[in-house]
Amino acid sequence: MGTTRFVLILAAAWGGGLFLDRAAAQEAAADPRASSARLLDQLRLMGPAEIEAVYRGGTAVAIPAGSIRGGALLSPGARRARMMSRGARVVWQGKVFEPAGDRAVNRFFGIRIVKAQVYQGASWLDGRPALILDYTQTSRIYARYRDEIRQVAPGLYLGLMHDATTNPPDLRMYFTLYDF
C-alpha cells in the first residue's frame, strides 16, 4: 500500500474531531508500522461508521502464513470499548493461516479451534473484494458466520463478522489482525 494512500486512510479514520497533521503524515511515511499500531489503538475508540469507513478504504490481500495476533472490537463507540476489546484477548487471540492460503484456524484460549476455508470474494458490506473466511463446511460452532478481511495499513487487517443466517446478513462484530 502506498504511503499516500495509507495517510489518506489514517486521515479518514481519524475524522470526527481528530485529525492527521503534516507532522503525523511525515511520521506515517517514515515509520508505517508505528502508524499502524496507532491506527489499531484508534480503531478501539471508533464507532461503527468510522470503523466501516476504514474498512472500505482497505485492500483485499492474502495474509501471511502462520500465526497472527487478533483482537475483537467490542462495543464500538462506547466508553468501555477499549477495555472490553483488551479483555477479549483472554478468549480470542487471533488466527493461524496455513501456508497454502486456503485454510485458517481461530485461536481461542490459546488453542487452535474453529477452522475456516479462505478465499477471495465479494464483501457483504460494499461488494468490493475481500478475503473471506467461510465456516459453513468446517465448523459446527461457527457454521452460521462468515468473516471478511481487508488490509487497512502495513501489517494491520480489519475484519467483519457476519451472521449468514439472516437476510440480509447481519454484521455482528468487528475484529483486527496484526503482525507488528
Plain-language structure description:
The protein is 27% helix and 36% strand. With 180 residues, it is of the alpha+beta class. It has one domain (1-180). Strands 1-2-3-4-5-6-7-8 form an eight-stranded antiparallel β-barrel, surrounded by four helices. Helix 1 runs parallel beside helix 3 (32-43) and helix 1 runs antiparallel to helix 4 (48-56). The longest helix has 12 residues, at 32-43. The radius of gyration is 16 Å and the shape is globular.
Oligomeric category: single chain
Note poorly predicted spans: 1-20
- How many strands? 8
Q: Order of SSEs, N→C?
A: HHHHEHEEEEEEE
Strand content: 35-45%
Ends apart, CA distance between termini: 16 Å
Structural class: alpha+beta
What form results from the Cα inertia axes? globular
* Cα-based radius of gyration, to the nearest Å: 16 Å
Largest sheet: 8 strands, antiparallel, barrel
Task: Note the total helix count.
Answer: 5
Q: Portion of residues in helices?
A: 25-40%
Average pLDDT confidence is 87
Query: How many domains?
Result: 1
Order of the strands making up the biggest sheet: 1-2-3-4-5-6-7-8
Give a quick rundown of the structure.
The chain is of the alpha+beta class and 180 residues long. It has helices at 3-13, 22-30, 32-43, 48-56, 81-88; strands spanning 66-73, 92-97, 103-108, 111-122, 129-134, 145-153, 156-163, 170-178. Helix 1 packs parallel to helix 3, helix 1 (3-13) packs antiparallel against helix 4 and helix 2 (22-30) packs across helix 3.
